[in-house]
Write a structure and sequence with these properties.
It is built from six helices and 19 strands. The protein is of the alpha+beta class and about 350 residues long. It has three domains: about 15-120, Thrombin, subunit H (Beta Barrel); about 135-235, Beta Barrel (Thrombin, subunit H), CATH 2.40.10.10; about 245-350, PDZ domain (Pdz3 Domain), CATH 2.30.42. The protein is globular, with a radius of gyration of 23 Å.
Length: about 350
């Protein structure tokens, strides 16, 4: 397959040098720094307790992004999970021994994105990333991707690889990840996936890795951040709602398993497996065993065909918030119907999981 290159393509060295200017090492104010030499063993334990207390998450990677005259540090939501809004973090730029103070600003734990702002609003970082289009990432091409991160708290390790799969839905994830054949370690969270064939555009951030002898890097697509960007930059936590219903893909189960779930006679595809008693979904008349054909809003500007449960969850939370009216096109037998449900509030974002398989019958 022909791989297009920019007419004035940058060299890998040029892209690497640019990345050095916008990739940062992040550490929470209470995070224990690495020590090169400790003797006697245990001597520093009491010192650490007195100075830092309980260790918090935060040794990771981030990138600088620009918005007009404003600059932010973009990273994964789990990197800044332990901090409160406005809490201090420090970032180190390449070539500087002095950390720069940043503060937790906006975050979305469901999709795992977070941004920090510079405490000194007049500070101008040495560089910022150019965000690309993650939908352009495909498997089976000769296109090359690289990343610059801080694995295991070591600084600025460059690594490269190819796309293994452009869309992978991980268990519990609210959006798909890009699977990359690339070295990946704790501390690389928030490191950019750099498209080398597109002049170094950033198409995602490293979010997780498989625990295996040859780890797989899973990357959050940058287009998801672009969708959430206005809310993240507004500050605070993005609150997603819930429909309080369970869904599943019948194609993932055998006929015997479907029978044990009590779903005999259900439609094929993405179906409603259950609704929470007293929920808006139950009151709206959503029937167990119905196939979800499409997800819409009242104005019709959102009209998404549903092919699997993971896509349903992703598009639900990207397009609707608490209080919004969701229009679902359902099919049960020969009957098609549109049902409107108002997204309900949820206090704990970790409880917004909507893909729930009911307990099997004994």
């Amino acid at each position: 397959m022909f791989t297009p290159y920019y007419v004035n393509a940058k060299t890998e060295q040029e892209i690497f040098q640019e990345a050095l200017n916008y990739v940062v090492y992040i550490r929470h104010e209470d995070q224990i720094p690495s020590l090169d030499y400790v003797e006697p063993v245990g001597f520093w334990d009491s010192v650490w307790d007195k100075i830092w207390g309980k260790e918090k998450a935060g040794k990771a990677t981030g990138i600088v992004i620009g918005d007009g005259e404003d600059y932010y540090i973009l990273t994964d939501g789990h990197v800044i999970r332990d901090g409160e809004e406005g809490e201090k973090y420090y970032v180190w730029f390449y070539g500087s021994e002095n950390p720069v103070v940043v503060k937790k600003h906006g975050w979305d734990y469901l999709f795992d994105w977070g941004i920090l702002t510079f405490e000194d609003k007049t500070y101008i970082p040495p560089g910022f990333a150019t965000l690309g289009d993650s939908s352009s990432v495909t498997t089976g091409t000769s296109e090359r991707f690289c990343s610059l991160g801080n694995p295991l708290a070591f600084r600025r390790y460059w690594r490269c690889g190819e796309i293994m799969k452009e869309r992978e839905y991980l268990p519990g994830a609210q959006t798909f990840r890009i699977a990359v054949d690339m070295t990946c370690n704790p501390g690389d969270s928030g490191s950019p996936l750099i498209h080398m064939n597109k002049n170094g555009e950033v198409v995602g951030l490293t979010q997780s890795l498989s625990i295996s002898r040859s780890p797989i890097c899973f990357v959050s697509p940058i287009n998801i951040f672009k969708k959430l960007s206005p809310l993240l930059k507004a500050g605070g936590e993005i609150k997603h709602g819930t429909l309080n219903m369970a869904i599943l893909n019948t194609y993932d189960f055998t006929p015997g398993e479907i029978e044990k779930l009590g779903l005999e006679g259900a439609e094929k595809g993405v179906i409603v497996a259950g609704t929470l008693p007293g929920s808006a979904a139950e009151q709206a008349g959503v029937k167990v065993g119905s196939q979800i054909i499409a997800l819409q809003n009242e104005s019709g500007s959102v009209n998404i065909e549903i092919k699997n449960s993971a896509e349903f969850v992703e598009n639900l939370h990207l397009n609707f918030s608490t209080g919004d009216t969701v229009v679902m096109m359902l099919k049960k037998g020969d009957i098609y119907e549109k049902i409107k449900i108002v997204m309900e509030a949820v206090d704990n974002m970790e409880e917004t999981q909507i893909i729930i398989v009911p307990e099997k019958k004994e």
